[in-house]
Amino acid sequence: MNSISRRRFMKISAATISLAAAGCALKSGTSSLGTKEKRKGIQKIPTYCDICFWKCGAIAYVKDGELWKIEGNPDDPLSRGRLCPRGTGGIGAHTDPDRLRTPLIRKRDRGEEVWQEVTWDEALGHIADKMQKIKSEYGPEAMALFSHGIGGNFLKHTLNAYGTPNISAPSFAQCRGPRDVGFRLTFGEDVSSPERTDIKNARCLVLIGSHLGENMHNSQVQEFADAIQNNASIIVVDPRFSVAASKAKWYLPIKPGTDLALLLAWMNVIVKENLYDKEYVTKHGFGFDQFAAELLPYSPEWAYTETGIEPDVIRETAREMGRYKPATLVHPGRHVTWYGDDTQRSRAIALLNALLGSWGRKGGFYYPISMDVPAYPYPAYPKPAREKVDNPNQKYPFAHETITTGIREATLTGQPYPVKGWFVYATNLIHALPNEEETIKAIQNLDLLVVVDVIPSEIAGWADVVLPESVYLERHDDLNVEWFRDPFTALRQPVVESPQDQKPNWWIAKELAGKLGLGSYFPWNDVEEYFKHRLTAAGLDYDELKKKGVIRGKKQPNYFEEGVPVEFPTPSGKIEFYSLQLQKAGFDPVPKYTSPEQNPPGSFRLLYGRAPVHSFSRTQSNRILSDMMSENEVWVNSSIAGRLGLQNAQYVTLKNQDEIVSNRVKVKVTERIRPDCVYLVHGFGHTSRGLRHAFRKGASDAQLLTRYNTDPLMGGTGMNNNFVTIEPAEA
Questions:
Q1: Would 482 be classed as within a structural domain?
Q2: Exposed / middle / buried, residue 539 (Cβ in 10 Å: 0-12, 13-18, 19+)
Q3: How many whole angstroms separate alpha carbon 148 and alpha carbon 169?
Q4: Between 311-323 and 259-272, two packed helices, what is the crossing angle to 10 degrees?
Q5: Same domain assignment for residues 610 and 666
Q6: Residue 598 CB-density burial (10 A; 0-12 exposed, 13-18 middle, 19+ buried)
Q7: Contacts of 73 by beta carbon, 8 Å cutoff, 6+ apart
Q8: Is 167 in contact with 145 (CB distance < 8 Å)?
Q9: pLDDT of the residue at 19
Q10: pLDDT per residue as tens digits for the range 560-580
Q11: Are 212 and 322 in a shared domain?
Q12: Sign of the CA dihedral 606, 190, 141, 50?
């Protein structure tokens, strides 16, 4: 093993240009694909996508042994035979010249970026030794796993077998958590992932900060197109005139941070004018009279002063929702961590849907179902000696998943007990968590940081050990037994081989478990043996699944009117318009509105969102996707641009309230955004030099999110509380 510099690390992490030009041809040698030579002709191999969490079924085409194209699997209910731009661009993940290629161990202090290229045996042995040392000195609970997506399932299994309860995903505290808690508090259930939204049958669709068509969740976007074709009435609430807004009957350019005021005013009108579903509410509701009394102060005239939306518009849009009930769907959103009151705002969305009678009804929220595929009969996990570290004394009483920033806080403070090791899978914590400085300070308190990734992300640059994973087109992952409108089971399987020394996550998890003395938790020899056991127990045929990629189950009822049992697993057994459990915990039983922090003089609230061709900060080095969008832009209202003397496509920098300055970014001068805010697409502005193609292209919203408000109910981080000024960039 030879010590290597940062420059050498960059070379190791990047495949050669000639390899990309050759389409990353299969290596010679035996493999799970069962060939030593390139096969002639075209092979069609089903799998499912991993560019985002939607996991759409796909068919990959391999032409003369090289990956050729990817399209949707027509048998898959998620893709319905069509992929989004990210999915069809998945080939670029395989051919990406910036990919990690071999295991690396840090040889100097963090930040000095001096590495050794090592074998897998050496890397996993080093990790196992460190983990055993942490266990002996601090207990197994001192290790934490941060994981994103289904690919983390086997690593979760290894860490559970090791004995830690501290397993988390940023998708809870930094994304969907407030929504899930708000709906649980109201209906006793959350909206699941993929969401149980019956968009295609909605006669009125309300989108509050939901950027369908830009946030490209495949089947939802297809159903959005269905709703438009069916002449559904669409109401869009957003400070920015999004793609979805361009399809709307009503567009409400709301003042950022005042969404709850609008929701309360809508409910005020619907109750006052008797537009709600009286039979549904009377039969299934709890505490409606107390709820209605709480709404009295929130008139449209009151809301106008907060939101900037005219009272007549508030009334007319409320009447529109009532006109089409129960087939009115107020979309719950996905990335809902905005201002810190997010659970109560999401609960207001749930309550508005409850008034309209949409839960469990066609055109509202259907009841999802899944196939019964038993879990593998593993040995029982050891019982941790200590509770999870993220939420001591149940500070956030309604958090039902692990809070990532809670683990970070414990790592910083050592309270309630020390966290000394992080295992990070497929999530770039530098971009995913707010306040980059806090994340780096926490990392410096660790004895071990392991990163499993396919690209040299920013978090990989801080790791002690970097493990290069095969991309999804080169590996098996766990079976996808999804909760959805129609039951199905899907298989991800290798389409081509990994071009260098990358390995699949199941192999990494199994090999590490062996080195930790936990081999009994992986009694199967390879992942296909694991699949066969589970599928046989379910009465399904593995060979059929390999051939088709998806096996569909029997259609079952989705709505109350089709025979779904009417059940609400809340304390009252009903829809809780007035929440006694919130009241008992010291919170408002009905949401109340508090005005947001105002913009400091001369500054603009920073908003951010997604693009249809990129997924988080994972895809900017994908040459196919970056050809469609190589950098982001900052949206600036044209009146503001004129006042500041800014031209379209001019480069500027953004400086936030804590003096953090962004990379330079192009201005998009537009009428399509309010003057009091600016907007960036998330995921750009990479600072990892290993990401040669994406390095410093555009601005990072994550870098500017130094302040956040923590949701008191569940610990989510409201991140739309940062303000920026704009300055012309130096050449």
A1: no
A2: exposed
A3: 6
A4: 60
A5: yes
A6: exposed
A7: 46, 48, 56, 57, 58, 59, 79, 81, 549, 550
A8: yes
A9: 26
A10: 999 999 999 999 999 999 999
A11: yes
A12: negative
Are the beta carbons of 334 and 210 closer than 8 angstroms?
A: yes
Q: Residue 283 contacts by C-beta under 8 Å, 6 or more apart in sequence?
A: none
Is residue 612 domain-shared with residue 576, that is, in the same domain?
no
How far is the C-alpha of 251 from the C-alpha of 600, rounded, in Å?
Answer: 27
- Under 8 Å CB-to-CB from 128, ≥6 apart: which residues? 512, 515, 516
Number of domains the chain is built from: 2
Structure tokens at 277: 């579903």
- Count of residues for the chain? 731
Q: What pLDDT, in 10s, does the model give residues 496-528?
A: 999 999 999 999 999 999 999 999 999 999 999
Confidence label for 356 from pLDDT (cuts 50, 70 and 90): very high
| pLDDT tens-digit series, residues 31-62 | 344 444 577 899 999 999 999 989 999 999 99
Instruction: Answer yes or no: do 218 and 340 share one domain.
Output: yes
Q: 78: number of CA atoms within 13 Å, CB side?
A: 34
Q: What pLDDT shows up at residue 582?
A: 98
Which sign does the torsion angle of CA 176, 569, 194, 214 carry?
A: negative
- Give which of 477, 504, 473 is closest to 491, Cα–Cα: 477
The token pair at 231 is 């002449």
| Coil, helix or strand at residue 484 | strand
Q: Which two structure tokens, joined as six digits, stand for 232?
A: 């559904």
DSSP 322-350: HHTTTSEEE---S---SSS-HHHHHHHHH
pLDDT of 626 > 90? The answer is yes
How far is it, in rounded angstroms, from Cα 486 to Cα 77? 7
Instruction: State the residue range of the domain holding 701.
Output: 604-728
The side-by-side arrangement of strands in the sheet containing 250-252 is 250-252, 233-237, 204-208, 328-330
Look up residue 442 and give its two tokens: 């926490």
Tokens in use for 221?
A: 């976007």
| pLDDT score recorded for residue 110 | 86
Q: What is the CATH number of the domain that holds 609?
A: 2.40.40.20
For 388-407, the DSSP string reads: -SSSGGGSSTT--S--HHHH
Distances (CA, A) of 261 to 221, 300, 714: 28, 9, 21
Same domain, yes or no, for 573 and 683?
A: no
Question: Does 382 fall in a domain?
Answer: no
Helices in 246-341 by DSSP H: which ranges? 259-272, 278-284, 288-295, 300-307, 311-323
DSSP structural state of residue 207: E
Helix (H) or strand (E) holding 545: helix 542-548
The whole-number pLDDT of residue 730 equals 81
Q: What CA–CA distance (Å, rounded) separates 409 from 413? A: 6
- Compute φ and ψ for 45, nearest 5 degrees: -125, 120
330 with 195: CB under 8 angstroms?
Answer: no
**Cβ–Cβ < 8 Å for 435, 717:** no
Measured in degrees and rounded to the nearest 5, phi and psi for residue 223 equal -70, -30
The model's pTM is 0.94
- Examine residue 576 and state whether it is found in any structural domain, yes or no: yes
Kindly report whether the peptide bond that precedes residue 416 is cis, defined as omega within 30 degrees of 0.
yes
Please state, for a pLDDT cut of 90, what percent of the chain lies above it: 92
Q: Residue 30: how many CB atoms within 10 A of its CB?
A: 8
Burial group, residue 28, by CB count within 10 angstroms (0-12, 13-18, 19+): exposed
For the chain, helix, strand, coil in percent to 5 are: 35, 20, 50
**Residue reference for tokens 């050449």:** 731
Q: Does 256 fall in a domain?
A: yes
CA distance 25 to 498: 9
Q: Looking at residues 468-483, what average pLDDT do you find?
A: 97
* Closest by Cα among 202, 124, 487, 524 to 362: 202
Confidence tier at 15 by pLDDT (50, 70, 90): very low
